[in-house]
Amino acid sequence: MIHRIVKLAAPIAGGLGVLAVVLAAARPAVDIHGEWVTYAGRSGDSVTAYVAYPERADPAPAVIVIHEIFGLSEWVRSVADSLAVAGFVAIAPDLLSRRGGTDAQANARQAIGGLPPDSVTIDLDATAAYLKSLKAVRGDAIGVIGFCWGGGQSFRYATNNPELKAAVVCYGPAPDLATVARIRAPVFGVYGENDARINAGLPDAERAMQAASKRYTKTIYPGTGHGFLRTREPADVTAGAWRDIVGFLRAELEQ
Questions:
Q1: What is the topology classification, in CATH, of domain 3-253?
Q2: pLDDT reported for residue 10
Q3: Exactly one of 3, 226, 236, 244 is catalytic; which is it?
């Protein structure tokens, strides 16, 4: 098992990303612990994931981090670290584990595009079950966040796991609108202004969520495009989006 200790002592330009920069500036020294884990999937396969733990005395709420179409990258691991800085246990499963993992792929984007939706749900269910097995986690306070492809999967997973307490969709498409009535968690959508491909579906998604009496709030961030949380452009708007995300997760999971 690989262990990683990350100490945030001052704002940094890279590595942990904008959220960690914002939080590090507010909290002069924060220790978190990160490690790689492998756990059994429901179908008998194993799932590899990166887990980041905060320093806190009590069990923490947890967030499942669903990676982009590029797979489980260093940036996605930095998101998990950043969420740990904010006080959550964060786990980022490699949803290509069944195929040898992200690093084993010649073309991770193509491999992820070929994943059967049901297998993604099975592996996310296994991830939620693993979190519930951890004494450091509040099993009744688990949320999900995803980016790009993972944003769509986060929205979709909310239709499949009624025990989720929060879902964040970062510039991902909505699921089959006929399924949104199954959602029980509040959903927060994070979208870029210059992302017409994704934003074109927002009115229909909003109407479907309203018709089903579901909690769905969204923000379209000015001057941003698809993937802006990774590119960090514009930096001030991105930092504001991260604060909104953390605020939403704290409001829903720290109750």
A1: Rossmann fold (3.40.50)
A2: 29
A3: 226
